[in-house]
Amino acid sequence: DVSRERLIEIVAQQMSEKRFAHVLRVEEMALELAGIHGGDLEKVSIAALVHDYAKERPDHDFIKVIQEKGFPEELLVYGNPIWHGLVGAEIISKELGMTDAEILNAVRLHTTGAADMTQLDKLIYVADYVESGRDFPVVNQAREIALTDLDEAVAFETKHTLAYLVEKEALIYPKTIETFNQWVVKK
Ligand code: DGI
Ligand code: FE
Ligand code: FE
Ligand code: FE
Fold first, then answer.
1. Which of 152, 77, 93, 174 is nearest to 106 (CA)?
2. Which of 7, 65, 75, 137 is the most buried (most CB within 10 A)?
């Protein structure tokens, strides 16, 4: 396995300093949340460090993977926000030789969530939303919930993200609805 130090160098090379600082804050927050709610700290750290690895890739890198790996054609309309995790996981797997399925899955789901989420999936999904540099109207409330109840935090984030996307009249990826139905409606 590649050391944390080496992984940090590799990830830093893939993005702006600003985004890299976000990645380090997600790691810090995810480790804090894992300390409270439980989780494999080694995997939490790696998943956080790589979660936005592919975010600054040009569209054609993702389109190539979508075509080569036989992902559904419907994916092509969604763009970077949906591709960088879901398709980015394939790029991470290939370029970093990453084989850990749990880590790759947490990266795949980190933007949309899913109906079924592991502890690692939840930690990365929530930490990405509440890391200390985030600043949006409900972030303090989201942080408070994240420190007390991780499942509640998944629900809160999902509801507020969907409301934000609806307000923007953004195209909603079906997985985002699936997450809403599971975590906000059912519970
Ligand atoms: O990569 P980050 O900015 O750290 O955060 P992220 O990967 O969680 O989210 C990236 C963006 O994707 C964020 O602005 C919310 C947006 N998003 C989440 N679900 C959907 C979505 N955008 C669209 N169009 N459709 C979705 O279903
Ligand atoms: Fe992301
Ligand atoms: Fe997120
Ligand atoms: Fe992120």
1. 93
2. 65
At CB < 8 A and 24+ separation, what contacts does 41-46 make? 43/100, 43/102, 43/103, 43/106, 43/120, 44/120, 44/123, 44/124, 45/4, 46/4, 46/7, 46/100, 46/103
pLDDT along the chain (187 residues), means of 10: 90 98 98 98 98 98 98 97 98 96 98 98 98 97 98 98 98 98 88
Give the ipTM of the model, two decimals please.
Answer: 0.97
All structural domains of the chain, each given as residue ranges with its CATH number in brackets, are 4-186 (1.10.3210.10)
Q: How far is the CA of 167 from the centre of ligand 2 (A)?
A: 20
Yes or no: say if 142 and 130 are a contact pair by the CB < 8 Å rule.
yes
Q: What is the atom index within ligand 1 of the atom nearest the CA of 175?
A: 27
Q: Tell me which of 158, 165, 175 to substitute to probe ligand 1's pocket, judged by most ligand atoms within 8 Å of the beta carbon.
A: 165
Say how many Å lie between the CA of residue 109 and the centre of ligand 3: 9
